[in-house]
Structure formats: structure tokens, C-alpha cells
Amino acid sequence: MRSIEVVNLYKSYGKVKALNGLTFSVYPGEIYGLLGPNGAGKTTTLKILVGLLRPDRGTAKICGYDVSINRVEALRLVGYIPENPVCFQNLTVKEFLEFVGALRRLDREKVREAMDYYLSGFELEDKRDELISNLSRGMLQKVLATAAFMVKPKVLILDEPMAGMDPEAQHFFKEEVKKMASQGVAVLISSHILDMVEKFCTRVGIINRGVLIAEGDLEELKVKAESGEEASLEEVFLKLVGE
User: Fold this and answer.
1) Which has the closest alpha carbon to 45: 66, 19, 27?
2) What structural domains and CATH numbers belong to the chain?
3) Is the dihedral of CA 44, 50, 54, 60 positive or negative?
4) What tens digit of pLDDT does each residue of 114-155 get?
């Protein structure tokens, strides 16, 4: 069963077509990188998958649930880190994470254990009682990652999730995502850091002007781009998008 299924998605903003028949799937245990130039439709796609936007046409499903029809059922299965983080500024880190746990009806003791584990891993233990409004961008990303991980999702949707994180936090983040994928979680990540995607993702989809133009692992994309065996994902990406 597909964990994420995007079929023939269309979305326009006035006369601008953000998505123009986009179709792709992500399976359990995959780390799928969604790449494309600015304005290609990546963030629009992710926002549709988490119910923040409605498509003009087409379907977006999470574990079989159509997000437009069964939004609550679908989003119970999702952990999400947005590109532009927005949190409750007047809550502390601890209060925010407890609030997320309460929304998901998680056991309080398990929320506390998860909070202890992730705040320690992200080196945020001393920020537990800090107001969200006082956090740097990188620290806020760590808090949102903690919230996304602790709900034990079946699907992770990540939009530039490591923006502002220090190298130690990025390492911890990637190791946790790999661990979750090994347990069957489907991961969809959008990023402009192509060398990270090359090493981290098991499969890549490249979109341009709202359409999927290539998909596969790096070797399959090299064939598609008619690139040499030593070509990097960056070189393959630039050639495919340029064409």
C-alpha cells in the first residue's frame, strides 16, 4: 500500500499554474526527495498533503485517506515540518510539546519520555522552559522536529526541515529519520541541499513547472539525463531541469 499517493494534482494561483497534473507515490520505508527549482510546486504539493491547501483537481492520499475528504483521519498519521515555521509564541517549549501531545491524545508519560529523548538529542534541554518567541530559527526547527517525531507518525512530510540547524543537530535529525524509515515510516522531504539529498534519500522525484520530469534513484536519474557514471545529483538535476 502506498503511504503517500499524489494523482493528477492541479493547483493555480490566479493565472499562475503551480501544479499541472503532478503524480507520484511514496512507499513505506522510503525516504523520497522532492526536488525542483524555485516555483516548481514543491511547497504547494506538501501543503496539499497536510491539508493546508485544496487542489483544484486531482487527489492526495495519506495511507489511503483522501486528504480533502478524510482530513482528520489522514493527518493523524502525519508528522510535518513546514518551510516557514509558525508556533505559539507565548508558550514555552515544554508547553508547546505537551499541547501537541494532547492534540494527538498521546499518553502523558510517553510524551515526557519522547520530550526528554529528543530535547537531549537536539541539545535543547536547557531551553525546555524558554518561550518559543525567544528561540532562534535553528532552535525552532529542532522543536518542530521533536513535535513531528514524538507523535510516531506513519508519514513524515518535511519542507526544508534542517534550515538553520547546526551540524550536530543535522546529524541527529538524519539518524532519527533513517531509524523511522527502517521501521516502515514513509518520508517525503523537499530540500535545496542536493548533496544531502544524494546521500540521504533512497529515491528522488524532480518536478518543474508543476510536473514530474524524472524519478528514480541516482543511477536511474543518470540514465535519464544521459550523464556519466561519476555525475553528481546536482549535475543530473541541472541537466534535467535545463532540458
Assistant:
1) 19
2) 4-77+154-242 (3.40.50.300), 86-152 (no CATH)
3) positive
4) 999 999 999 999 999 999 999 998 899 999 999 999 999 999
pTM score above 0.90: yes
The three-state (H, E, C) secondary structure of 56-122, written as one string? CEEEEEECCEECCCCHHHHHCCEEEECCCCCCCCCCEHHHHHHHHHHHCCCCHHHHHHHHHHHHHHC
Amino acid at 236: V
The C-alpha atoms of residue 115 and residue 79 are separated, in whole angstroms, by 15
CA-CA distances (angstroms) from residue 75 to 35, 41, 58, 64? 23, 21, 18, 12
In whole angstroms, how far apart are CA 141 and each of 24, 80, 120, 237? 27, 11, 15, 27
Helix (H) or strand (E) holding 195: helix 194-200
Amino acid at 29: G
Question: Using one digit for the tens of pLDDT, what is the confidence trace for 33-61?
Answer: 999 998 889 999 999 999 999 999 999 99
Task: Confirm if 31 and 202 have CB atoms less than 8 A apart.
Answer: yes
Q: How far is CA 3 from CA 41, 48, 64, 76, 78, in A?
A: 20, 15, 7, 13, 10
Direct distance between the N- and C-terminal alpha carbons of the chain, in angstroms, rounded to an integer? 33
Helix axes 108-121, 167-182, angle to 10 degrees: 130
The secondary structure of the chain in percent helix, strand, coil, rounded to multiples of 5, reads 40, 25, 35
The three grid cell numbers given for residue 21, joined into one nine-digit string = 497534473
pLDDT value, residue 243: 64
Please tell me what DSSP assigns to residue 37: -
